[in-house]
Amino acid sequence: MAGTWEKTKMKSMFYKAALAATALVATAVIAQAGNLKIESWRNDDADIWNSKIIPAFNKAHPDIKVEFAPTAPKEYNAALNARLAGGTAGDLITCRPFDASLELFNKGNLAGLNDLKGMANFSDVAKSAWTTDDGKTTFCLPMASVIHGFIYNKDALKKVGGTEPKTMEEFYALLEKIKKDGTYVPLVLGTADQWESATMGFQNIGPNYWKGEDGRNALIKGTQKLTDAPYVATFKELAKWGPYLGTGYQAQTYPDSQNLFSLGKAAIYAAGSWDISTFRTQGGFEMGAFKAPPPAGQSDCYISDHTDIGIGLNAASKNAADARVFLDWMSTSEFAEIFANSLPGFFPLSNAKITVKDDVAASFLSWRGQCKSTIRNSYQILSRGTPNLENELWNVSAQVINGKMSPEDATKQLQAGLAKWYAPQK
Amino acid sequence: MPELTQSALSSKSGFGRLALLVFFLGPAVVIYAAFSVYPLIATMALASFTTDQAGAYHFAGIDNFILLLTDKDWRGPFWNALGNNVLFFIIHMLVQNPIGIAIAGLLSLPALKFRATYRTLIFMPTMLSVVIIGFAWNLILSPLWGVSEGFLKFFGLGSLFQPWLGLEGSALITIGLISVWQFVGIPLMLIYAALLNIPEELVDAARIDGLSHLRIFFHVKLPLIMPTIGLVSILTFVGNFNAFDLVYAIKGALAGPNFSTDLLGTFFYRTFFGNQLQLGSPTMGATVATAMFLIILMGVCVYLFLVQRRLERHSF
Question: Is residue A363, in this structure, part of any structural domain at all?
Answer without folding.
Answer: no
